[in-house]
């Protein structure tokens, strides 16, 4: 059973749409003050899980408690303590930046004076004070995203749900959003996010689960997942196939013993080992001459692709 420090407790959680089971019995525990991530390809069940946690989609089976409450019977109480940042910005483009926050705050029944004070605090927090009187339609994508995050914080939530928080943003805007989210975590807000960006998950998440086909296939911190499912380094080898006279598959056989595993991609080979430089030296010793080489550390993306595959799922 969930304890007082548990923000989300799910056991055997299921979600069905007719005969289709989107979430097939998962166990999740999110602790107070954590940044927790759901990773997975399209159709993995992430969004269905998030909607159940947000108390906007009923549970089909299993147990779910959010902030100690049952979303099915205590939906309004759960939603009053949540902040939700959806994947698509749902801002009112006919209102100013400030009025978007003020109107949303009034939805929660907060007194006008308190909402006004909160609006100014949040504008400063997301660095939009100078844009307070601008119309939403005149904002950049990054500014709209920061405004959506500010709006999700108007009720001082204990738990903030973020669905793909930086999709479509340029690198500078992404880093500004990351900075704001990190500051929220420092303030004690529990963050739960879905993301397709592996570097984002590595930056923000204390722990995460990888979902695939409605199931959790791995769980842990980014570092522990890399240690468990990959090697310390990856040597990337690009060959001019015509010059070598071998296909990538044939070349992979020639270097298969140099690492824990070799992955064949259309344009290169990936050799997973704990010493990428040694792999490259031995490749040259065997008379193989790649046209380009790269040694890098293993990332969460290597783990993700190994667990869920490289084939797109619609």
Automatic annotation (TrEMBL):
Q: Which InterPro entries match?
A: AAA+_ATPase (IPR003593), ABC_transporter-like_ATP-bd (IPR003439), ABC_transporter-like_CS (IPR017871), ABC_transporter_ATP-binding (IPR050763), P-loop_NTPase (IPR027417)
Entry GO terms, CC: plasma membrane
The record, for PROSITE patterns, names: ABC_TRANSPORTER_1 (PS00211), ABC_TRANSPORTER_2 (PS50893)
Keyword Ribonucleoprotein present in the record's keywords: the answer is no
- Drop me one GO molecular function for this one: ATP hydrolysis activity
Q: Which SMART domains match?
A: AAA (SM00382)
Per UniProt, subcellular location reads as:
Cell membrane
The protein's topology relative to the membrane is: Peripheral membrane protein
Protein's GO biological process: response to antibiotic
Q: Domain ABC transporter, which positions?
A: 8-238
Q: Which UniProt keywords apply?
A: Antibiotic resistance, ATP-binding, Cell membrane, Membrane, Nucleotide-binding, Translocase, Transport
- First-listed, main subcellular location of the protein, grouped into a coarse class: membrane
Which family is this protein grouped under? Belongs to the ABC transporter superfamily.
The entry's protein name is Lipooligosaccharide transport system ATP-binding protein
Q: Which organism is it from?
A: Nocardioides ginsengisegetis
Taxonomic lineage is: Bacteria, Bacillati, Actinomycetota, Actinomycetes, Propionibacteriales
């Amino acid at each position: 059973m969930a304890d007082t420090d548990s923000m989300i407790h799910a056991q055997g959680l299921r979600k069905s749409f007719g005969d289709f089971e989107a979430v097939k019995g998962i166990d999740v525990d999110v602790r107070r003050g954590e940044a927790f991530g759901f990773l997975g390809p399209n159709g993995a069940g992430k969004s269905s899980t998030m909607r159940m946690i947000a108390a906007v989609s009923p549970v089909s089976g299993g147990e779910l408690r959010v902030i100690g409450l049952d979303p099915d019977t205590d939906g309004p109480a759960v939603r009053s303590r949540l902040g939700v940042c959806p994947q698509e910005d749902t801002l009112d483009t006919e209102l100013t930046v400030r009025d978007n926050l003020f109107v949303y705050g009034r939805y929660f029944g907060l007194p006008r004076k308190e909402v006004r004070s909160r609006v100014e605090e949040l504008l400063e927090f997301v660095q939009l004070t100078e844009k307070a009187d601008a119309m939403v339609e005149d904002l950049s994508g990054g500014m709209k995203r920061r405004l959506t995050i500010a709006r999700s914080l108007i009720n001082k939530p204990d738990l903030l749900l973020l669905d793909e928080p930086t999709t479509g943003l340029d690198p500078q805007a992404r880093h500004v959003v990351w900075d704001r989210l990190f500051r929220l975590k420092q303030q004690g807000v529990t963050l739960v996010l879905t993301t397709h960006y592996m570097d984002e998950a590595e930056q923000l998440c204390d722990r995460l689960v990888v979902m695939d086909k409605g199931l959790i296939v791995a769980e842990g911190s980014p570092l522990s997942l890399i240690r468990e499912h990959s090697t310390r380094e990856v040597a990337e080898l690009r060959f001019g196939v015509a010059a070598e006279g071998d296909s990538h598959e044939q070349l992979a056989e020639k270097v298969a013993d140099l690492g824990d595993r070799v992955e064949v991609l259309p344009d290169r080979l990936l050799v997973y080992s704990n010493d990428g430089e040694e792999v490259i030296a031995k490749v040259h010793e065997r008379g193989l001459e790649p046209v380009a080489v790269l040694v890098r550390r293993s990332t969460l993306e290597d783990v993700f692709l190994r667990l869920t595959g490289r084939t797109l799922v619609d």
